[in-house]
Design brief:
The chain is of the alpha+beta class. The protein has helices spanning 2-5, 15-26, 32-39, 43-55, 78-99; strands at residues 30-31, 59-66, 69-76. It comes from Capnocytophaga catalasegens.
Length: 100
């Protein structure tokens, strides 16, 4: 069990960061407003959690302009995909052990 717990990643222990990564694992990219609506969070809350994931290099942030408005999109990095998969695998193993 100790080895399994080593793969639990603190970056994903928050429901919003878990949600962001879940969306980005099944979509190539997602913009700020899409994530905000899907996760039902405020602008500031989403901005803080995306910043945390970006600081870990788990997501890539791309800022563009559409007319005069900023359009921010996010994409999971290879490092982020690997870390998230390891996290999910560890959770699955914990769940399997609980069923025994």
């Amino acid at each position: 069990m100790k080895e399994i717990l080593q793969h639990i990643n603190k970056a994903f222990d928050n429901r919003i960061r878990l949600g962001i990564m879940s969306v980005l694992m099944v979509n190539e990219k997602a913009d700020f407003n899409t994530l905000k609506e899907l996760l039902n969070v405020t602008d500031g809350n989403l901005a803080n959690h995306t910043k945390t994931l970006a600081n870990e290099q788990y997501i890539e942030v791309q800022k563009n302009f559409i007319g005069r408005k900023t359009n921010t999109t996010y994409q999971a990095t290879l490092k982020g995909r690997k870390a998230f998969e390891e996290h999910l695998n560890a959770l699955e193993k914990i769940a399997e052990n609980m069923r025994k």
